């Protein structure tokens, strides 16, 4: 039995997605056969309740210099981070000469908003090309991984930070003890370490099984984050549920005893108890639903193929790697995936090797059906692609169940 990466307690495996590729490395056709694969299995710690992967992928493989994801590619995410920056500029960053540090700043949506307000700032990101994109706008960026030694160097050079913030990054980091140690060393007295990540409660409730992929080493709940914070000398002082990515939780932590714990923490702990997020049976049920959804999706795609229908994918997302590889979906069932990210185009999807084409391919001509891999941006995408629906096209979604839209 595996030991918990957080508390050392026993971890019980509840689902195995089998052999999976690194989800955000899109091979050129000539590089097929050189991909790195690993076993994607997830388990539940019976002591601290942290859901975690059982096999770690090397961080250099997941976040190389040419890591292709860009936060700015979505108008929804641009608006989210601009609003988030405005909130913290009015609260945590409103004192004399505040200092802001962002872990996993990517191409700098939020960092740029903080910079524009005249606040001292530093983004930290190992993906060189994304970090350079943030730097090109004038924001200050350190290219590298955030961990305790890096945090101490930042503190020595820049002084303490009133806010250390991260979005969709902390759950990626298996060595999270060093991250909290770094935050502890870097924060000013009374400062806060805030991070947003996909919420386990939404993943389980809506069977968002494709949120399980290599980068999401941990799947956080309020209870497991509270236990993790305590393990590393912090208090979980506030939580806020957000709608982005199908359900995200914003966790606010501070050094133990430095800030008052707000009532939302107790409310969400009670909510999770009622939903049985701390019981193994919940995860066994989740696993059964995953198997059912995958079987239904493959059966639907097979039937459409037999009927001579043309099906493409929409959005070469990280999470689609879990779907295509676990469900056994390749170019025989989905002829191509359309994506607006130039660095992904004319490459193939990880493991399943479906060709990735520019967005103009989607309408030349429209397919009969489109699998919406980027379902977390469904509203934005469907509003943009109304002509597809007007031409008789149908969207295929596989969460919270397999259905047509």
Please provide a brief summary of the model:
The chain has a domain at 308-404: Rossmann fold, CATH 3.40.50. The chain contains 13 helices and 18 strands.
Protein model, in words:
The protein has 405 residues and is α/β, with parallel strands linked by helices. The chain has a domain at 308-404: Rossmann fold (3-Layer(aba) Sandwich). Helix content is 33%, strand content 24%. The protein contains 13 helices and 18 strands. The protein has helices at residues 59-62, 75-90, 109-116, 128-136, 148-158, 176-186, 200-205, 222-231, 263-274, 280-306, 319-327, 378-384, 386-390, and strands at 2-3, 10-21, 37-45, 51-53, 99-103, 120-125, 141-143, 161-167, 187-198, 218-219, 234-242, 248-255, 311-314, 337-338, 356-357, 369-372, 394-397, 403-404. The strands form 3 sheets. Strands 7-6-5-8-9-12-11 form a 7-stranded mixed β-sheet, sandwiched between helices. Strand 5 (99-103), helix 3 and strand 6 form a beta-alpha-beta unit. Helix 2 (75-90) crosses helix 3 (109-116). The longest helix is centred in the C-terminal third of the chain and has 27 residues, at 280-306. The termini are far apart. 49% of the residues are buried. The model has no long low-confidence stretch (mean pLDDT 96).
């Amino acid at each position: 039995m595996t030991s918990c990466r957080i508390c050392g307690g026993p971890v019980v495996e509840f689902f195995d997605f089998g052999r999976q590729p690194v989800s955000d490395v899109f091979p050129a056709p000539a590089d097929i056969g050189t991909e790195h694969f690993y076993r994607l299995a997830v388990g539940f710690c019976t002591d601290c309740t942290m859901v975690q992967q059982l096999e770690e992928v090397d961080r250099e493989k997941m976040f190389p210099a040419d890591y292709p994801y860009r936060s700015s590619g979505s108008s929804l995410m641009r608006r989210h981070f601009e609003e988030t920056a405005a909130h913290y500029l009015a609260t945590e960053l409103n004192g004399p000469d505040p200092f802001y540090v962002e872990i996993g700043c990517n191409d700098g949506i939020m960092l740029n908003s903080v910079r524009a307000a005249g606040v001292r700032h530093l983004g930290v990101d190992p993906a060189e090309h994304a970090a350079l994109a943030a730097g090109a706008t004038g924001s200050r960026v350190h290219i590298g991984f955030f961990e305790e030694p890096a945090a101490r160097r930042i503190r020595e050079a820049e002084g303490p930070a009133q806010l250390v913030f991260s979005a969709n990054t902390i759950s990626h980091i298996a060595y999270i003890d060093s991250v909290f140690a770094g935050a502890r060393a870097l924060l000013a007295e009374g400062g806060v370490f805030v991070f947003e990540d996909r919420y386990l409660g939404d993943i389980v409730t809506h069977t968002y099984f494709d949120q399980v992929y290599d980068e999401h080493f941990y799947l956080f709940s309020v209870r497991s984050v509270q236990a993790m914070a305590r393990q590393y000398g912090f208090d979980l002082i506030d939580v806020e549920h957000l709608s982005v990515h199908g359900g995200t939780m914003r966790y606010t932590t501070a050094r133990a005893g430095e800030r008052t714990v707000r009532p939302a923490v107790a409310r969400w702990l009670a909510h999770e108890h009622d939903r049985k997020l701390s019981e193994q049976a919940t995860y066994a049920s989740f696993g059964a639903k995953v198997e059912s959804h995958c079987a239904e999706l493959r059966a639907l795609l097979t039937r459409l193929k037999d009927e001579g229908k043309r099906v493409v994918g929409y959005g070469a997302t990280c999470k689609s790697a879990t779907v295509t590889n676990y469900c056994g979906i390749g170019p025989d069932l989905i002829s191509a995936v359309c994506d607006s990210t130039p660095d992904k185009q004319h490459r193939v999807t990880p493991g399943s090797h479906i060709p990735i084409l520019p967005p103009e391919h989607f309408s030349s001509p429209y397919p009969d059906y489109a699998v919406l891999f980027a379902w977390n941006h469904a509203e934005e995408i469907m509003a943009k692609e109304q002509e597809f629906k007007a031409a008789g096209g149908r969207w295929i979604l596989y969460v919270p169940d397999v259905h047509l839209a």
